[in-house]
């Protein structure tokens, strides 16, 4: 598909709400907001959700970016819960969630709007996001969205690969990734459960996978557009390992607390969104991975087991959310199964 040609044909310029969530972001805040200011799309309103910080983040925003609305939170909220609150404070037809370590190309919003206006069933748009290294932009891919396997392993497409044009095709994907998601407001609001678009029981980590999966169940697409471009300074990884030792090396790049939340929240996501018959169909893949992961955690990451008590406490609520999701889904089991590789 060619989307650039569609931009002059747009009869209106929908309002885009940009929400940046930041805490102790002095290292990145200037580059991030300079890129927001440089956007070629004009109908943008920006809100900076400022979590209590101990560095100069607020001073920089107030002195250098006074045109952007600053909302000062009294307590710290991770991106998902903060974006829930920003959705309630904004009115844009589209909602862009930004992490402070992301720098957008100047045409990011313009190109994203063109894609979304072309297909009204796209609920979330995934950009081609590259890595930065020591503040320098590279052509190494950070993510082009999530893909999922029959084992229920979920990885970032293309992470760590040099861009040689292998991801230059615009296409539907399983789910967007949460560094710079671009949502249709109608879609994300319609996908809320118990009034929450991002599940706040998750706190942090894997809530993007959960929401992307749920949006698909509710009839909305996640779509990858390669000409919507950004750069991301990722501190952790989520890619397909090349072997057991590589798997261990990758796990060790992720902070311990994130590993606990990853295990807990991804299993919450399976409970809430997966079809039991699909799990049964893929049981040999799923159980094989679960057994190997349990053995690894038992010997190398026993502290991850500290997530189990809270998992049990939250389980009844997750089952309640599952019942709501399954009652309101529009996607069939066979439609979902085509995404499991």
Summarize the structure.
39% of the residues lie in helices and 21% in strands.
Itemize the secondary structure elements and their pairings.
Elements (H helix, E strand, L loop, with lengths): L15 E7 L6 H9 L6 E7 L6 H8 L4 E4 L6 H11 L4 E6 L2 E3 L3 H11 L3 E12 L2 E8 L2 E3 L5 E3 L14 E3 L8 E3 H6 L16 H11 L3 E12 L11 H8 L4 H18 L2 H6 L1 H18 L6 H22 L4 H5 L4
Helix pairs in contact: 6-8, 8-11
Description of the molecule:
The protein has 341 residues and is α/β, with parallel strands linked by helices. Helix content is 39%, strand content 21%. The chain is built from twelve helices and twelve strands. The protein has helices at 29-37, 57-64, 79-89, 108-118, 185-190, 207-217, 244-251, 256-273, 276-281, 283-300, 307-328, 333-337, and strands at 16-22, 44-50, 69-72, 94-99, 102-104, 122-133, 136-143, 146-148, 154-156, 171-173, 182-184, 221-232. The strands form two sheets. Strands 1, 2, 3, 4, 5, 6, 7, 10, 11 and 12 form a ten-stranded mixed β-sheet that branches. Strands 8-9 form a two-stranded antiparallel ribbon. Helix 6 (207-217) runs parallel beside helix 8. The two termini are 24 Å apart.
Number of helices: 12
Order of helices and strands: EHEHEHEEHEEEEEEHHEHHHHHH
Work out the strand percent: 15-25%
Q: Kindly state the number of beta strands.
A: 12
Characteristic terms for this protein:
341 residues, alpha/beta, ten-stranded mixed beta sheet, two-stranded antiparallel ribbon, 12 helices, globular, disordered N terminus
């Amino acid at each position: 598909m060619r989307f650039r040609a569609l931009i002059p044909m747009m009869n209106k310029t929908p309002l885009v709400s940009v929400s940046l969530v930041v805490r102790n972001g002095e290292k990145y805040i200037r580059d991030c907001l300079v890129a927001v200011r440089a956007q070629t799309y004009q109908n943008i309103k920006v809100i900076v959700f400022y979590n209590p910080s101990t560095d100069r983040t607020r001073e920089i925003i107030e002195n250098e970016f006074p045109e952007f609305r600053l909302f000062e939170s009294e307590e710290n909220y991770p991106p998902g819960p903060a974006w829930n609150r920003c959705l309630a404070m904004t009115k844009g037809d589209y909602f862009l969630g930004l992490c402070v370590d992301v720098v957008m190309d100047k045409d990011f919003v313009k190109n994203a709007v063109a894609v979304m206006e072309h297909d009204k069933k796209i609920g979330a748009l995934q950009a081609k996001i590259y890595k930065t290294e020591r503040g320098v932009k590279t052509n190494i891919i950070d993510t082009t969205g999530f893909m999922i396997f029959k084992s229920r392993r979920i990885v970032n497409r293309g992470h760590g690969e040099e861009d040689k044009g292998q991801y230059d095709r615009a296409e539907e994907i399983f789910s967007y990734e949460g560094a710079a998601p671009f949502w249709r407001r109608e879609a994300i609001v319609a996908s809320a459960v118990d009034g929450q678009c991002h599940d706040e029981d998750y706190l942090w980590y894997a809530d993007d996978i959960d929401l992307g999966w749920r949006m698909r169940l509710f009839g909305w697409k996640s779509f990858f557009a390669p000409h919507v471009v950004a750069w991301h300074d990722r501190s952790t990884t989520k890619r397909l390992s090349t072997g057991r030792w590589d798997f261990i090396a990758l796990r060790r790049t992720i902070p311990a607390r994130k590993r606990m939340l990853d295990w807990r929240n991804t299993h919450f996501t399976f409970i809430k969104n997966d079809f039991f018959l699909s799990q049964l169909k893929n049981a040999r893949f799923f159980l094989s991975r679960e057994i190997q992961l349990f053995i690894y955690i038992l010997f190398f990451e026993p502290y991850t087991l500290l997530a189990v008590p809270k998992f049990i406490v939250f389980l009844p609520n997750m089952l309640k959310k599952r019942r709501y999701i399954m009652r309101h889904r529009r996607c069939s089991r066979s439609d979902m199964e085509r995404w499991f590789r």
